[in-house]
Amino acid sequence: MEETGGVKLLGFWVSPFAQRVKWALKLKGIQYEYTEEDIYNKSPLVSKLNPVYGKVPVLVHNGKPISESIIILEYIDEVWKQAPLLPQDPYERAQARFWAKFAEEKVRQSVWEAVCSSGEEKQKAVKSAVEAFEEFEKELKRRGTKFFGGETIGFVDIVAGCISYQLAVHEEVGSIKILDSSKFPAISEWIKNFLNHPLINEGLPQKDQMFAYFSKRSKEIASRKMSHKTA
Amino acid sequence: MGSGENKVVLHGMWASPYVKRVELALKIKGIPFEYVEENLRNKSPQLLKYNPVQKKVPVLVHNGKPVCESLVILEYLDEVWSTGPQLLPKEPYQRANFRFWAAYIQQLLESIFKLFNADKEAHEKPLQEVHEKLRNLEDGVKEFYFPEGSPNHISAENLGILDVMLVSVLGPFRAKEEAFSVKILDPGKNPLIFSWIQALIELPLVKEVVPPHDKMVGVLQFLKQSGFKF
């Protein structure tokens, strides 16, 4: 049954989490209405639709809100059956969920932690990030396909995909180097293929705007950490 | 379904909340399984083979193929054993809602771990965070999970993912309170969660899974004293 109910997405231009949802909607050809929220000046709608976390993205479908990007992806895949994100086989689905969690918690998070920290903490975070990239590289090589999902973009690609357009900016902002293309040829190739897809590349934020935003944001987080330590 | 065709092995550790989730889910769904207790200071070659990335428990091995990460395992169990008791509802919006609150109960566990890691003098803030999460949880699930306002419907026949998650985190709550001399669950502050976990830990199925009180107190205190980071 074709879902005809209204689909709305509340997002923030630079949020990798909102970008995941945009990609999923676009890949499935789902029409949606987008509302930009300024996370420094959120509208009352955000806390109304996401009372627990007060964050974006929030997907609203037929008037009902869903929060948390990975949960939203699972919802989208269950409601709209075209262009499936997760594989059909339960074992393969479990592998995809495992690697999506890994991509979010070990890959994306450690990079951001490295950007926002200094000294010993920074070194530790960089080491974690590199180790995570090594596992990711191994798995990509083992699969031997263009994307994690196979020949087409899938669940893990979308969750991990933020590194394709944000990692280089993070490395610059944080003065760190993680993705050495000679050390990570499979990931580098994956990034190229991923960004080559017109629906993926469309409407991504500009590099200089991301640089300015992440510079500001990482300093805020770093100084918050310092004040917690001295408190 | 021939039992020879479905060999299920769970690699675990008796005090791990993540392992408890899978154990309880297997029992709820009536799936026969073999349990292998792992010594986490001396991990079996099998564990390292089945979970080379994280080297952690739980690992579910189904007909020789490993599945890792507790919540991933729970979803896998529901998808493979799709007749009989289901951990998640069928309708997509409800599924999203249950997944949200299952993930939130995991957040509660992480706040409890922060509390365990804090020095005794620095208990106040982490404890406040735990209480805030309990309040959010209570308010959040009240409407859709306890529409009558009390856990009268809790029985062995209709346990789901939220019950599994709650047992894994709060099943041994008294042991956690004793080990760290803190009040985590106050029936005055969180009447619904208190009566919910009480109803759960009365069930024979759940009693089989929750670690014995004294043993739990002992291991928590031992870990804390040895500088373990929860």
Automatic annotation (TrEMBL), chain A:
SUPFAM superfamilies: GST C-terminal domain-like, Thioredoxin-like. The keyword Plastid does not apply. Keywords: Transferase. Coiled coil: none annotated. GO terms for molecular function: glutathione transferase activity. Residues 89-214 form the GST C-terminal domain. Pfam families: GST_C (PF00043), GST_N (PF02798). Residues 5-84 form the GST N-terminal domain. Its EC number is 2.5.1.18. It comes from the Eukaryota. GO terms for biological process: glutathione metabolic process. It catalyses: RX + glutathione = an S-substituted glutathione + a halide anion + H(+). GO terms for cellular component: cytoplasm. InterPro entries: Glutathione-S-Trfase_C-like, Glutathione-S-Trfase_C_sf, Glutathione_S-Trfase, Glutathione_S-Trfase_N, GST_C, GST_C_Tau, Omega/Tau-like, Thioredoxin-like_sf. Belongs to the GST superfamily. HSP26 family. This is Probable glutathione S-transferase. It comes from Coffea arabica. The gene is LOC113737162.
From TrEMBL, chain B:
SUPFAM superfamilies: GST C-terminal domain-like, Thioredoxin-like. It comes from the Eukaryota. It is found in: Cytoplasm, Cytosol. Its EC number is 2.5.1.18. One of its GO terms (biological process) is glutathione metabolic process. The keyword Electron transport does not apply. It is an enzyme of class 2 (transferase). Residues 6-85 form the GST N-terminal domain. Residues 91-228 form the GST C-terminal domain. It catalyses: RX + glutathione = an S-substituted glutathione + a halide anion + H(+). CDD domains: GST_C_Tau, GST_N_Tau. Keywords: Cytoplasm, Transferase. GO terms for cellular component: cytosol. One of its GO terms (molecular function) is glutathione transferase activity. Is involved in the conjugation of reduced glutathione to a wide number of exogenous and endogenous hydrophobic electrophiles. Belongs to the GST superfamily. This is Glutathione S-transferase. It comes from Coffea arabica. The lineage of its organism: Eukaryota, Viridiplantae, Streptophyta, Embryophyta, Tracheophyta.
